[in-house]
UniProtKB/TrEMBL annotation:
Molecular function, one GO term: oxidoreductase activity
A cellular component term, taken from the record's GO annotations: cytosol
Species of origin: Pirellula staleyi (strain ATCC 27377 / DSM 6068 / ICPB 4128) (Pirella staleyi)
Tree of life domain: Bacteria
Pfam families membership: CCG (PF02754)
Name recorded for this polypeptide: Cysteine-rich domain-containing protein
Length: 248
């Protein structure tokens, strides 16, 4: 039974705690022993992305203090995991715990496919589902193939969803385009951010999506805001909720 330190992003903890609970449920359903260290804080991504690296450094060291001794660290967020795996080098490169911790930090679906070797989620989800591929998960964690790279297509999250009974995964015209959120980009470039979000929602509507899902609640938060303001008939669910068996 693998022991997992559950790493929950700030916005999930504060605004979407049900996504954290779904992640816990799913990991336990798959046979993991899960612990939630209450001393965890922000990974430092918002500060780092805005250029405030000095402010991000103590948060990176705090992450290592909290999680370095776990067998695995798992989070329902590609962007936060990408921060640890690809951007902590410039913050805490002198800490000998860094590389071992990076190697055992995983996004949720990545962990299920690559570590637990799960091939099928044995529960139904009879809905038309549109999968949004978040940028960090796609192009830094390589959770799926991207359209600009030649090679056989693959998708770890899509693979898990496709194994569920009754599900119909829709095919988007632009399956790996950014939603426009980008953290502080959505604040500094609000108009562009919203136009990009409109484009993604239009693609899902045209493709017949009933439930829009993703690995990152940050992307879904942005898209859900646009959907709500424009009163679109789309339901938004994090992939952990679907895989854990939550209903629409």
């Amino acid at each position: 039974m693998p022991t997992v330190g559950l790493f929950i992003p700030c916005y999930v903890d504060q605004m979407y705690p049900h996504v954290g609970m779904a992640t816990l449920e799913l990991l336990e359903q798959l046979g993991c022993k899960v612990e939630f260290p209450t001393a965890q804080t922000c990974c430092g991504q918002p500060m780092s992305n805005t250029g405030c690296t000095d402010e991000a450094k103590p948060l990176a060291r705090k992450f290592l203090d909290v999680f370095a001794d776990y067998e695995y660290i798992v989070a329902p967020s590609g962007s936060c995991v990408s921060m640890v795996r690809h951007h902590y080098d410039e913050l805490v490169h002198d800490d000998k715990r860094l590389v071992p911790t990076q190697k055992k930090t995983f996004e949720l679906c990545e962990f299920i496919v690559d570590v637990l070797k799960v091939e099928k989620i044995d529960r139904p989800f009879p809905h038309r589902v549109g999968l949004h591929q978040s940028c960090h998960g796609l192009r830094e964690l390589r959770l799926a193939s991207s359209s600009e790279v030649m090679g056989p297509p693959f998708g770890k999250t899509r693979q898990l969803l496709a194994s569920m009974a009754g599900i119909e995964l829709v095919n988007l015209e632009r399956p790996d385009e950014c939603c426009g959120f980008g953290g502080t980009f959505a604040v500094s470039e609000e108009a562009v951010s919203c136009m990009m979000g409109d484009d993604r929602i239009y693609d899902h509507e045209k493709s017949g999506t009933q439930v829009l899902t993703a690995n990152d609640m940050s992307c879904l938060m942005h898209l859900q805001g646009i959907i709500a303001r424009k009163k679109k008939p789309l339901r938004v669910m994090h992939v952990a909720e679907i895989l854990a068996g939550h209903s629409v």
